[in-house]
């Protein structure tokens, strides 16, 4: 009976992962169709002089469906398991955007593939494996380590940057009956306190802070934001004031907490106007030594926006729009910044690529791996300036990818 229970639990885990992958693929297809239809409709209405009234396929319902899907869990109890017929999961071919990119960012005319990369982890539910990784964080003190959040496996794992081996994970407190992490997404810390890491937990509607112990595991310090957040995703920490900025994806707003975890301000409402947001994903400070402006990826508005938080979230500027060409987006997600050289890296989730922009938002180029080992639905990013390493949560490939940006 025990063996049968284990087998059924494993089978259900596989079914759940297939369902999650198909939902992710279908959403990318729908997003592309929406953008194509929107562009076509805009062109036809523009020529006819009729006011444009296009509303992309009930985006709120689609967003809620994906959010609710992430709440599903797999039980290992025979009384709770219901068998599913996976033959009903209709398989449809996916079109992937592949653009060769040069190793050196500075050389706009080069056409050599960027093969200077390596991957960490693979698909699975065991130690050192991933199932839908969402964000990455590089820490170099006391050891060179990369943290990877994983929503389906409900954990954050730590890996050695030198060996690629898993060295630990974020553990639930002893005597705790519930997992400390339910749907971890955003990761961050500050240069002034690299030993403390922050995790945005979408399903628990909170931020948790952790410290890495002598055994290489994460130990929970505290939780905050339960009364303020609905569905947090991206998070960044100020190097100046230690204030904490959170992209509340479900509330379509940006929340600012002080260093003690007390909400100090929030701004943003759902919409398509310049000052509005529709599914904000990740956030970064525009400057390393200045808390004034923050950069936000606006998922459903297909652009990147900058806001002045000293002026209570006043809109500053934006770049990008819907499309597949260079400089355009289909649902941008992750963000990373090379503050020294002024590069802004953006995960173009729907186009399965990483785009690079300058400080003014002008397109520079595409970062890609190779023709055989592509990105697929990339999410969170982080950049380590000493080694010029860009870390990518390669969600669709269930791994973390490290690219050397020469």
Automatic annotation (TrEMBL):
Whereabouts are the NHL repeats?
120-162, 264-310, 316-360
Q: Name one GO biological process term.
A: protein polyubiquitination
Q: In the record, what terms sit under GO molecular function? A: ubiquitin protein ligase activity
Name of the featured protein: Uncharacterized protein
**What Pfam family does this protein match (any one)?**
NHL
User: Which keywords are on file for this protein?
Assistant: Repeat
Q: Does the keyword Repeat apply?
A: yes
Tell me the domain of life.
Answer: Eukaryota
**Source species, please?**
Rotaria magnacalcarata
Record-linked PROSITE patterns = NHL
Which residues, by range, are in coiled-coil regions?
Answer: none
Q: Where is this region: Disordered?
A: 92-129
């Amino acid at each position: 009976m025990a063996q049968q229970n284990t087998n059924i639990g494993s089978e259900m885990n596989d079914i759940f992962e297939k369902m999650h992958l198909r939902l992710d693929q279908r959403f990318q297809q729908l997003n592309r169709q929406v953008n194509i239809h929107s562009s076509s409709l805009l062109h036809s209405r523009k020529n006819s002089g009729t006011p444009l009234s296009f509303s992309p396929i009930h985006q709120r319902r689609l967003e809620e469906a994906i959010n609710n899907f992430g709440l599903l869990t797999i039980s290992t109890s025979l009384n709770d398991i219901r068998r599913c017929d996976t033959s009903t999961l209709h398989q449809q071919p996916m079109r992937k955007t592949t653009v060769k990119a040069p190793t050196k960012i500075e050389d706009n005319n080069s056409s050599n593939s960027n093969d200077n990369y390596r991957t960490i982890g693979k698909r699975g539910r065991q130690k050192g494996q991933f199932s839908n990784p969402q964000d990455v964080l590089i820490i170099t003190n006391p050891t060179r380590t990369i943290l990877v959040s994983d929503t389906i496996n409900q954990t954050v794992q730590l890996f050695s940057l030198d060996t690629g081996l898993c060295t630990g994970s974020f553990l639930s407190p002893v005597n705790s009956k519930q997992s400390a992490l339910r749907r971890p997404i955003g990761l961050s810390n500050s240069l002034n306190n690299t030993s403390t890491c922050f995790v945005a937990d979408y399903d628990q509607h909170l931020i948790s802070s952790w410290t890495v112990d002598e055994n290489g595991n994460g130990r929970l310090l505290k939780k905050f934001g339960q009364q303020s957040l609905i569905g947090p995703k991206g998070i960044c920490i100020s190097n100046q004031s230690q204030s904490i900025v959170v992209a509340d994806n479900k509330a379509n707003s940006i929340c600012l907490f002080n260093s003690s975890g007390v909400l100090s301000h929030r701004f943003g409402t759902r919409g398509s106007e310049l000052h509005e947001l529709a599914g904000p994903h990740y956030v970064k400070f525009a400057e390393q030594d200045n808390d004034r402006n923050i950069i936000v990826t606006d998922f459903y508005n297909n652009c990147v926006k900058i806001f002045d938080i000293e002026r209570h979230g006043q809109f500053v500027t934006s770049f990008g729009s819907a499309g597949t060409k260079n400089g355009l987006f289909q649902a941008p997600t992750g963000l990373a910044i090379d503050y020294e050289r002024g590069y802004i890296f953006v995960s173009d989730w729907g186009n399965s690529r990483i785009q690079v922009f300058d400080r003014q938002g002008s397109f520079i180029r595409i970062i890609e791996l190779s023709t055989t080992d592509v990105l697929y639905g990339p999410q969170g990013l982080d950049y380590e300036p000493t080694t010029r390493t860009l870390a990518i949560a390669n969600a669709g490939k269930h791994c973390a990818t490290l690219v050397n940006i020469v």
